[in-house]
From TrEMBL:
Taxonomic placement: Eukaryota, Sar, Stramenopiles, Bigyra, Opalozoa
Superkingdom of source: Eukaryota
GO CC annotation terms, alphabetical: outer membrane
Name under which the protein is recorded: Sam50
Domain annotation Bacterial surface antigen (D15): ranges: 138-272
Keywords (A to Z) from UniProt: Membrane
Localization annotation: Membrane
Secreted among keywords: no
Length: 281
């Protein structure tokens, strides 16, 4: 005996009731309510809209599970077709730690890495990731902080990145590179386009036993091109990008095309040179 088709049953969405208590702000959940749900007139339309909303909420990556149950309104309601949707949210753990390591095939790099991830700390579906990497062989280090607040400014993602690194290239070119910078980005949710502004400070230093003035004449350890870069510099960069992707599969595409256009403009603000007679230590 086949079950009757009830997808066409008249039904109107009236309200949400979220259980159990949750930390996520109401505005974060409300902005994921599809317009189809507000105008749904049948059970089938409500079900399709709730599936879409479930996918939207899970894409925020702050929930382990999202479930919906249709129920009779527990408040006075004069519409006989009105239904209330009970929402059950299971939020992810707020703090996650990770430790790892890697070795290069040429045995020139051996890194230890640790990361700390804080999820939904403010209730706005934000994600804060801090990462530390140290190369045991090269004595290089990298520290970065990434903050993502999705759909926070006119529906666009707000991304803030801070990176500080000390990279040792003494074996290859007898210099070390120090950099410190911050980048602020505004990105479309579908990554259709993005805008970014970055401000970075960089300095290159020769080995401690190399005198800059003597090396400029002899060029025994450092190339002339590298010596020109051995000075502190501060620059700001403004960029905009557009991405068009019609591939059927981003990993193994069989049809479609992918196009990315990026415009970058760099504005040097400061370019300091060491005075004669000085040396790097």
């Amino acid at each position: 005996m086949s079950m009757p088709d009830i997808s066409g049953m008249p039904m109107n969405f009236s309200a949400f009731k979220i259980e159990p208590p949750y930390k996520t702000k109401n505005r974060v959940i409300q902005r994921e309510i599809p317009e189809e749900l507000k105008h749904a007139k049948t059970l089938g339309e409500i079900y399709a809209a709730l599936v879409k909303m479930q996918m939207n909420l899970m894409s925020l990556d702050i929930f382990d599970d999202v479930r919906f149950v249709l129920d009779v309104p527990d408040y006075m309601q004069f519409d006989p077709n009105a239904v209330m949707v009970r929402m059950f949210l299971k939020e992810k753990r707020p703090v996650m730690l990770g430790v790892g390591g890697s070795f290069s095939s040429t045995a020139t790099d051996a890194s230890l890495e640790g990361n700390l991830e804080v999820v939904n700390a403010t209730g706005y579906a934000d994600r804060l990731v801090s990462r530390v990497n140290f190369d045991v062989l090269r004595k290089s280090s990298l520290y970065s902080i990434n903050l993502l607040v999705p759909k926070s400014i006119f529906g666009h993602h707000l991304i803030l990145d801070y990176t500080k690194s000390i990279r040792d290239y003494l074996k290859e070119s007898s210099v070390s590179c120090l950099s410190d910078g911050v980048t602020l980005s505004l990105q479309h949710p579908s990554r259709l386009y993005s805008f970014a502004y970055s401000l970075a400070w960089r300095d290159m230093l020769p080995a401690s036993n190399v005198d800059v003035d003597v090396e400029r004449r002899s060029l025994q350890h450092v190339s002339r091109a590298m010596l020109r870069q051995c000075r502190p510099s501060l620059k700001s960069t403004l960029s905009a990008s557009i991405s068009l992707d019609s591939r059927d599969n981003p990993v193994l595409p069989t049809s479609g095309s992918s196009l990315r256009l990026q415009l970058v403009s760099t504005f040097p603000r400061f370019d300091g040179r060491r005075t004669a007679g000085s040396s790097a230590t």
